[in-house]
């Protein structure tokens, strides 16, 4: 009986899934051509980024890119209205993911899922 109550309370009071249309954040992806290493004899490469902009005060606790198959960020971030945070999806000349199809963000105890058509 205790297990049922625990599972039910986690379901009722845990993270809820919500529509990206009602999210307190905006999510975008982008590429930037990085030439930093060229002056040290290296080669230039594209850097892939994930950008999150707060549309209200928000606490982000987890981000999963492509259902965790691409990247997962679980360091909490507090953002105020208008704050923008970027996450690198590339390390050096290798990309953690070439195409971002889906981003799930846990913010203010709700999960918002954003999809992208590449």
Descriptive report:
This protein is mainly beta and about 120 residues long. It has one domain. Helix content is about 10%, strand content about 50%. The chain contains one helix and eleven strands. The chain has one helix at about 1-15; strands at about 15-20, 25-35, 45-55, 60-65, 70-75, 75-80, 85-90, 90, 95, 100-105, 110-115. The strands form three sheets. Strands 1, 4, 5, 6, 10 and 11 form a six-stranded mixed sheet that branches. A hairpin with a 2-residue loop joins strand 10 (about 100-105) and strand 11. The longest helix is centred in the N-terminal third of the chain and has 12 residues, at about 1-15. It is elongated and about 45 Å long. The N and C termini lie far apart (about 45 Å). The model is unreliable at about 1-15 (pLDDT under 50).
Based on secondary structure, the structural category is mainly beta
pLDDT averaged residue by residue: 78
Low-confidence stretches: 1-16
Largest sheet: 6 strands, mixed
Query: What is the string of SSEs from the N terminus onward?
Result: HEEEEEEEEEEE
What is the CA–CA distance across the termini?
Answer: 47 Å
Number of strands: 11
The total domain count is: 1
Q: What's the alpha carbon Rg, rounded to whole Å?
A: 17 Å
Q: Counting H and I runs of at least 4 residues, what is the number of helices?
A: 1
State the helicity in percent bands. Answer: 10-25%
% residues in beta strands:
over 45%
Assign an overall shape: elongated
